[in-house]
Amino acid sequence: MSTPRQKIEVACAARGVREVVAACVELIEGGEADPALLLVLGGPDAPQYLHAPDDQRYWLRVWGTRGLGWALGVTGAPAADEPAIVGAILTSLGDGWWRVREQGLKIIARYGVDDAQPVVVELLSDEVPRVRVAAARALRVLSTGSRRERGPGPDRAPG
After folding, report:
1. Which SS3 state, helix, strand or coil, does residue 115 take?
2. Which is deepest, 39, 79, 135, 141, by most CB within 10 Å?
């Protein structure tokens, strides 16, 4: 069985890393989703969320954010500080669903998205403990510069 990271790497090789990154950004921003990519991001049941009630469609943004975290670590990926990517990450931090915020914070910690620091500080007081912990970690990484330069090692998962 392959991991989410491995699935994203295969999708990047097949489609192109920039296309996968762009599709993840589109999902985070609430745009249209490619059902085939949803299979990669969320598994065999994921396409059903395309027609799910609004209160369940947040999973599309969770998967888009998690996919973006993995895709940015693939060779040839755009830099995490490109404006469209930063915009999507900031969008994820303002999402009403905690899982999306948590995944966005993991990307910030992994790739050192300095432009997000003011929002990260705000999330230190988020109502959800997991978001607060992720915000503290992201802030620690941003303030110390101890991030990993191009992604997680094989022993570190984005979530």
Report:
1. helix
2. 135
Residues 80, 124: Cα–Cα separation, whole Å: 22
| 115 to 7, 31, 89, 146: CA distances (angstroms) | 29, 23, 10, 16
What gap in Å lies between CA 18 and CA 125, rounded to an integer?
Answer: 34
pLDDT band at 67 (very low <50, low <70, confident <90, very high): very high
Which of 95-104, 105-114, 149-158 is predicted with the least confidence, judged by mean pLDDT? 149-158
Q: Report whether 71 contacts 13 (CB < 8 A).
A: no
Cα–Cα distance measured from residue 27 to residue 5, given in angstroms and rounded to the nearest whole number: 17
The answer, yes or no, to whether residue 73 has pLDDT greater than 80, is yes
CA angle (81, 77, 110) in 5-degree steps = 55
